[in-house]
Amino acid sequence: MSEFTAMAGLVSAPGAALAANILAFGRLLRRAGVPVGSTEGLAAMEALSLVDIGDRRQVHAALRAVMVRRREHFPVFDQAFLLFWRDPEAGRNAAAMALMDGMKEQAKPPPGSRRLAEAMAPQRPPRPPPQPPEERPPVDVAMTVSERERLQTMDFEAMSAAEIAAAKSEIRKLVLSLDARPTRRFRPDPLGPSVDLRGTIRASLHQGGEILSLERRRRVTRPPPLVALCDISGSMSRYAQVLLHFLHAVTNDRDRVHSFLFGTRLTNVTRQLRHRDAEVAFELVSHIVPDWSGGTRIGESLELFNKQWSRRVLGQGAVVLLITDGLDREGAKGLAEATARLRRSCRRLMWLNPLLRYAGFQPRSQGIRAMLPHVDEFRPVHNLESLRALVATLSGPQQVRRMAA
Q: pTM here?
């Protein structure tokens, strides 16, 4: 008898039994980092009453449709569903086969495995606080590292659900103050470096045409626009989830910030990220982004950006953050030309690549080799420390780009 045949018996039993299972399943998803509340639990009960509860695929599709709101949570839900609604006999057989194949090479765990393992672990009651000793012994702290310092250097892909939440809280505290650039506009200033001829003549009209004093002016300075192009393909999905919080914080902290997501197509999410509530903003993003955790077409996405958006958002010395690992499923087709045109359209092009976290990184893929000659800076972006270094670099004075002869 499968687990869905056993679940079918719960329909004829009192409804409290099914409600208890749905409640426990919702708690498991919450501990794994999927936002599930009482509304989703009630919707799940109603959804199960409309499908054949003995059909595995129908139950899975119904629960995922009403309990998951964001695409990046689908892999975590699928694993949690298999672990929670499993057949005990199948579980024992799978465990026996795993012991026999223990010497085989282990496959890479899917995203969210660590969070699910923590969520499935039994919840132990908190230990009582220890009694303080009469005399505190000396503690050697020469080689100890605080939890916050460890979080700064931990890779986003290796973080648990609690560590991801702590990292997002730290990201919201980052303040990005771009180096202000002079514009074409001037403003009146009594101590300005240049004479305002038009203002001087206008002021002389109040004195019968006599010029008694010179009006002065100063050029207006303004931070340049910031444009982010973020890769949301399967190889970048875990980093994109965290970096979206960084883009949301920057968008709500300053003006003239434009954000685009690309996988197999390009999507402008600037308006959605302007919502103050992060959860609401990401839910709006999930509704308009159809290719999350899919393939990657970097060349086509950059070409589309150059044709449709570059003239609108890359004026006044814009800074572009290109966030991708450079792994394009189309190879390097049109990638070098699109990157070169993007670099000519902006003042500063910074490529943020999480693969630089490896000490022995080598640009071996065709996409990386095609893009690398056309960027101004090539930086890692895989932990909080690299994000802080990026903010410090953007806030400092910009280097003047030397044009090739």
A: 0.60
| pLDDT at 10 exceeding the cut of 60 | no
Contact 78, 111 (CB under 8 A): no
Give 303's pLDDT tier (boundaries 50, 70, 90): very high
Q: What are phi and psi of 339, to 5 degrees?
A: -70, -40
Tell me: the pLDDT tens digits for 84-136?
Answer: 877 544 444 444 444 444 433 444 455 555 565 655 655 555 555 555 555 55
Sheet containing 216-222: which strands, arranged edge to edge? 181-188, 216-222, 194-195
Q: Checking phi first, is residue 139 left (phi over 0); if not, alpha (psi -120 to 50) or beta?
A: beta
| Residue pair 36/250 in contact by the 8 Å Cβ criterion | no
Q: Are 379 and 353 in contact (CB under 8 A)?
A: yes
Match 């959605």 to its residue by tokens: 272
Torsion angles phi and psi, residue 230, rounded to 5: -110, 130
Task: Kindly give the pairing relationship between strand 319-323 and strand 226-231.
Answer: parallel
Query: How far apart are the C-alpha atoms of 123 and 233, rounded to whole Å?
Result: 34
Alpha-carbon gap, residue 4 to 84, rounded angstroms = 12
Is the pLDDT at 375 greater than 60, yes or no? yes
Nearest to 152 by CA among 172, 166, 133: 166
Residues 6+ apart with CB under 8 A from 301: 229, 262, 263, 265, 266
When comparing pLDDT for 289 and 160, which is higher?
Answer: 289
Q: The tokens of 239 are what?
A: 């980093």
Structure tokens given for 218: 């100063």
Query: Distance between CA 346 and CA 342 in Å, rounded?
Result: 7
- Please tell me whether residue 231 adopts helix, strand or coil conformation: strand
Residue closest to 165 by CA, chosen among 44, 34, 68:
34
pLDDT average, residue stretch 331-360: 88
CA 110 vs. chain centroid, Å, equals 18
Q: Containing H/E element for 377?
A: strand 377-379
39 has a pLDDT exceeding 60: yes
